Structures are given as C-alpha cells and as structure tokens.
Amino acid sequence: MTEDEQLQSDIVKYTGSDVQVCDNMEAFKKELADYIHGLISSDFNKLVFMLYRLDINEKKLKELLALQPGTDAGVLIGDMIIERQLQKIQLRKKYRQDDSNISEDEKW
Description:
Shape: elongated
Radius of gyration: 17 Å
Oligomer: single chain
Number of helices: 5
C-alpha cells in the first residue's frame, strides 16, 4: 500500500465517513472538503468530535481560519487533517521496531 493510499485509508477510518479512497490526492481532498462542508452545515458536533479524535490542534485550527477568512473552511480543515495523519504515519514508521531479532519468549 502506498503512503497516499495508507493516508487516505486512515482518514476514512478515523473520520467514520463515506469518503472514498481515490487514485489521486486532489480528488480525495475534494471529497474530504465536501464531507467537512456537510458536517459544518448539518452536524457541527460530529465535526468537533471527529477533529478531537484525529488530534487536530484546536488553537492552530482557529488561527488558520482567522488568518485566511476568505478561504474555504472545508479545504483548510481537510488540509489540517491530512497533515496530521501524515505526521502520525511518519511517527509510526520512525518508532516501529524490527522484532525479527527478538526471541519468541520475549515477544508480547
């Protein structure tokens, strides 16, 4: 699985959305922004809960929205979600241990 596919898959899983994994990131970003627009207008509490679950920094989000008032909020929030999930993927790779040298008795 490519990094883009892993990223998209993680976002779909953690958002609980019906956004589809796409062949390219631009199409995925558009679908994600559309989904976020729907939450903004119809279920804001779900959006807030989703952002909390995804560990999106509330202060950074508010600053970003305030600094770019004419920019589409769905796109900005989607970009923050993608950025945060990329950070998580990179951290998992960095701290993943190679357990091939550990005896079976010592593995959990």
